[in-house]
Design goal:
The chain is of the alpha/beta class. The longest helix has 18 residues.
Amino acid sequence: MRLMMDFVDETGVLTEEEQNKIELLLEFAAEEENVQSGAELSITIVTNEEIRQINREYRGKDQPTDVISFAMEEMGEGEVAIQGENLPVTLGDIIISVEKAKEQAEEYGHSFIRELGFLALHGFLHLLGYDHMTEEEEKVMFSKQKELLEKYGLHRSI
């Protein structure tokens, strides 16, 4: 296994099978993206209210969103890197609103697991440094998402 995942479903909504599918998708993406073996990340499934509070506190947006990622490998101002050759890479945290995932799956006409996979992968790519702040970045990130989801077999119709 390339990734060490801490997966917490605070809502109790996900089945073990759904959680396993998300973990396998991210493991596949880590292989495809040549992520260092032993890299660590956390995935937390929350309610709309919980993600709204996080969105308000960290992004200044007082509304629920579908996914938020916090990359740990990015250095903030005044931070000092902890170095050591045996330390695992800590990618960061992915937080997903289960309610938004369900709403969007219905809105886009595909399965809940497809939407959940899309959101987890989207958050994961942010942890790897992909972004969509400019049109060019968006093209790169969204085509990478589409490529990985299709290669993995999680198509829109699923």
